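Why predict the complex rather than its parts? Because the way molecules touch one another can change local conformation, and only a joint prediction can capture that. The input here totals 1205 residues.
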Amino acid sequence: MSARRFSLCVNGVERFVDVPPMARLLDVLRHELGLTGTKEGCGEGECGSCSVLMNGELVNSCLVPIAQAGGASILTIEGVGEQARLHPVQKAFLECGGAQCGICTPGMILATVHLLGKHPRPTQEEIHEGLNGNLCRCTGYMRIFEAVEKAACAMESGAME
Amino acid sequence: MQKERIVGKPVFRKEGIAKVCGAARYIDDFSLPGMIFGATVRNAIPRGRVLNIEFGPGIPWDEFTVVTAKDIPGKNYIALINQDWPCLADGFVNHPQEAILLLAHPDRQLLPLAVAAVRIEYEELPSVHSIEESELQQTIVWGDDNIIKSYVMEKGDVDAAFALPEIVIVKGEYSTGAQEHLYIENNGAIAAYSERDGVTLWGSLQCPFYAHKSLLGVTGLPEDKVRVIQVETGGAFGGKEDYPSMIAAHAVLLAMKSGHPVKIIYDRMEDMAATTKRHPSRARHRTAVTKDGKLLAADIEFCLDGGAYSTLSSTVLSRGTIHSGGPYYWPNIRVRSKAFATNTPPHGAFRGFGAPQSLFATERHMDRVAKAVGLTPEEFRRRNLLRTGETTCTGQVIRQQIDLEGWMESALDHAGYYEKRARFDRENTDSLRKKGIGLAVFLHGAGFTGSGERYLNSLVGVDATAEGRVRVLVSSTEFGQGTNTILCQVAAETLGIDYEVVEMAPADTSVVPNSGPTVASRTTMVVGGLVHSAALGLKQTLIASGLLSEPYTSDAFQNAAKSYIAKHGALCSMSRYQAPPNVYWDDQKYSGEAYAAYSWAAYVAEVTVDLTAYFVTVDDFVALQEVGRVLNPVLARGQIEGGVAQGIGYALYEKVVWDRGLMMNNQMTNYIMPTSQDLPPIRVFFEEIPFEYGAYGAKGIGELPMDGPAPAILNAIAHATGEDFNAIPLLPEDIAERLAARTSIAKEMAAV
Amino acid sequence: MRSYPADYELITPGNLDAVLRLLSDEPGRWTAIAGGTEIMVLFGAGKLSARKLVSISPLSELREIFEDEDWISIGSGCSFTQIRRHAGVQRHFPLLAKCASWTGSIANQNRGTIGGNLANASPAADSSPALLAYAAEIELISARGTRRIPYEQFHLGYKKIALAADELIRAVYLRKCPADSFCYARKVGTRNAQAISKICVAATGKLHQGRVEEIRIGMGSVAPAPLHLVGTERVLLGAALNDATIAEARKALLSEVAPIDDIRSTASYRKLIAGNLLEELLREFAAWGDRK
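Output of the joint prediction:
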């Protein structure tokens, strides 16, 4: 089937792409929109490297055909924070050593943003479950768990200010 | 200890901000003008002749660039230790998933369809797929005897010791499976070629100069016409040591033939099926021990499954052989080791490099020897652990002030070992959830084995830019372990300047000297040491020039560097490896100083074995190690925790399912690594004894944590169940098969 | 990615009627895609044979959970996240909430739907054992109308289901049972998250004067399709939960299950664990009875 036009709101900006309807959201983000912060690790929804938020929900962008993302609001790692103004989650990952090789990091950070949106002060179990679709081969997750707790504290005190 | 400003501090990862922002650029994030895409056609059979290749219908073949072995301008092998590993199979294949031909096309998504449309006819020949089949030598698939490499390492008089009266002899056989690296970033490379500039290769890789060497051979180009650049690399663990040279060569061949830059990115299924894994192993131990538990002699046979080509197997075997004795004093020991060829994709480097295999056997065996002489695991070890002044199994004198007994005791304390061991023994009887606690004590040699570092002859530089910033010039790469951060810390500390002023020069063979491969836990200790001395040289140059005098600020240093460069054109200091004194190694007898330094560790695992589903859960994990000076506590913890997690996977989850050399579970959904819900708290403790010849006292750390988890966990399972399991990965199916007959449920079943 | 996107068609009619009309006009030619957690995996691996796909994920008609005094109905397009968080499901059908929480990962639960899970017809489907234990009914809809059948009649064999070419799953119906029922569920997977089950079981039951008055057990990954353990239940009904009964039940179970060796486990392990889980559930059932 030939390309069709789809519109989606990515990191707050309306974007249009002309692609086949089965094009994966992951490929649209990376190849059409140049947002290469979203990574492909497995292409089967197992590793979570391609995690983005779609209408506020965590999804694996490798499993979303673009036709199902038409009109949706997408948050990718590029929309979470900037190098000069890090999001508290990004800052916590940096401080706690939550990123090693960094390839799972964008997805892991989006999963954390999603988790803290649902559970602002997550329990250990909620943290472990909230990141269960994001595989990390470097850290053994311990530094990541610490980063999530630190981010939760930072965001809570930030919210009170 | 002098007061340091930067070393020993948890400074942030150099490239950390780029990583948390998604701005770090990995190989698949790059694109070049006119770039097209490459893919690899591979064989399905384990061994045989290629009779015919047919390009099937439905594909616009005239649009494709096709490369076969005939298109190789230079030599058809990937240069490692030997020259037996073909870049492209030329009429004969020795394992499934061997590369036969290469395709390139501008439409990336068309390539998988084209690969599937190539039909290859074979004449299949007999193949071998295990150490056992290979050692029978009924089918010869490599050399004259299937033996890629063998060693004999001997100390003392082993046979005489076994002939002594009043001794106890304990035998055992242990085996370990293949393990997939499962870096989350798949392999990939981009190649560009022009007659004027030659070849440029960008890749996800550990060792730029390994790829460089292979490309020289494959292209036949002179050194200055081959340039390799490592880009941000999303995990490696040894898996991007040798195989990236293959992908580099493939991308280069396609680029040379097509006239376009070519990108090859493996998908997960291809990466898992085609690239290297950890060597499977088998170890047979025969141990002579006195009745009061003093080790007298070991007679060990250690074998690896090397796969179809020799690649790195001889060095993996070497490290495995030397680590076979563990951290014990052996008056007599003999290790006979062999790496066998099989028709499996070549096994390669993986964190630990042979040591996790041989130490699994040794540490599991020591628990069994302890039991045989009626001692607890910790008491038996107490009587035999190496002490300062004693010799290792290669005859290397331990000069460092070590306290293995104290460190073991400390790990046991952190784990609450004694109380738990007693409590579990009491409470297990009536429970379907059996608890156990187990121990492993081990060592890991840092740097290349034996004369390896001397042969590497590493060269490192530190220079300054016109802006007065300092650069570290090394071919040592960052792939998550912290190379960038640690080496910049060392340089900044040595130069007395701010960490922020120091950066890494790009890992580009046209820019940096060859500081050796990024492997073998050598980067911090060996390369860091060279960065230290190069930085000292730079500082001395500046001071000698009169532009700088101590004490100085970071700004003053930068200004002085700027002035120096304005006056002299460049400011650079190089440092070449020099072996520490008294380092002597005999490659023939396998004796002497095997490693400049060993790191030491005692790990304790607590497990629950659920006798309903025979599922093992690791409930707590204590990892205590002495790694010399810890240069960055956050990064060091991260190394240990990550290594322990891989070790837990190695022990309990990660099984490669083979069908005649072909990996059948080559998907993340079927090759099971631990998720965030599968790991215990991993509690990390460091003992720090500065090592005189390492950077600021550091020794190696990266591989060490891979060695201990598997034996500690299986020792804990033996404690929980009373049953010896001597093979990993140990899956619930394996435990069920053995234990089912002994549970009350099954007894009732039998009674029905 | 091993498929060529332009070879595939994917359309998104705006409402259920339009989808049903399409299915009825060209029966068998269109495959519904909801959350994509199965179909997109096949697509990525180059193994998706269906070339014409119709998206049903935007259909709000399929995404609601209704609750009245006696029933809860769950639209086929409800995600596992929606199901596990729904107060009524949590209160009345805790096994289903539990099974939903075991499915895939958080991201997969956000996308994966109960309808997709059932239409995929895997013997390892996470929601099946709970639906069998609750005697769920399943409503199928087509341009011809709707029909409602017991869920256990939905599976006809390996990857075979009672869904006509022009039909969609519309909803799952669960009849509320008395609050004082016993319930049990356990999944044995390859790991604690993102695991395909090696074996999965769910059960509900009632005791009367120490004897089994009602029991329903559903089991996954032990037969070509999710299995309602009718024969085992027959042994248990009316019996006291003692060692002899448990042994009888294990024996009956072994005559009902027919697991296989596959890439994730072995037939002999599955048989053994099926028996162990049955025993565990019956002992918990007995202990539950004693506490009451």
